[in-house]
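dude i think i finally got it to work??
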Amino acid sequence: MRLGALLLAVLVPLASASAAVGRSPADFAGTYNGSQMEVGTELRLEANGRYEYYLSYGAMDEMSEGAWAADGDAIVLTSNKYKLPVFELVGRKPGAGATLDVSLDVPKDMELQYFSALLLLPDHTATEAQFENGPLQIPLTGVNHPTGFLLGIEVFDVMSEPYDIPTNTRSMHFRFVPNDLGKVAFEHTRLPRDGDSFVLERFGRTLKFHKEAPAEPGKDDEPPEAEEK
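look at this
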């Protein structure tokens, strides 16, 4: 009994491992739907090892294309090379005052109200300030006034590098360059298997992609007529 149990304990994991290693892209190829409340999303896995991913969430749309591979019961996504959006410092003006004016140039098809600044405080906390119709005024008075900030567009989960607030600086001028904004750079991102779904974490949500059944031929479809001889 003990020998049989020992052999079973060894052989079952080996069989599972062999099955996992033996999987090919064709085993998982198909269209997967991960839509849920307020989120529409789809993942397409092609048999040739390519993928397409789409997501729409409120005012935000994103997509990604690249290569995928089976990893046991999971899949791994590696996107094409995308150029990430950046915030560029255009210039600054010296001066003194109770506030620092931060201006931001954005593309014509984007609203300034989508952008915000994360203000870094001396006590190692942070607070968010939203852009409105003009420069953002950062207060420089008080014991706990901001000493630095990051610029971001939260809807796309994009943040700049941190910027210090220099002394004797009255204003700082930035420009947002979207580049490939809305295209997701997956870098060997693993989607584990949960039942019959692949799982991806995005924007604080757990997306579960279920494989869609192939479309069935219409019941009213008539077979082609035989050719007359």
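Residues 86-177 form a domain with the Immunoglobulin-like fold (CATH 2.60.40).
im so relieved honestly
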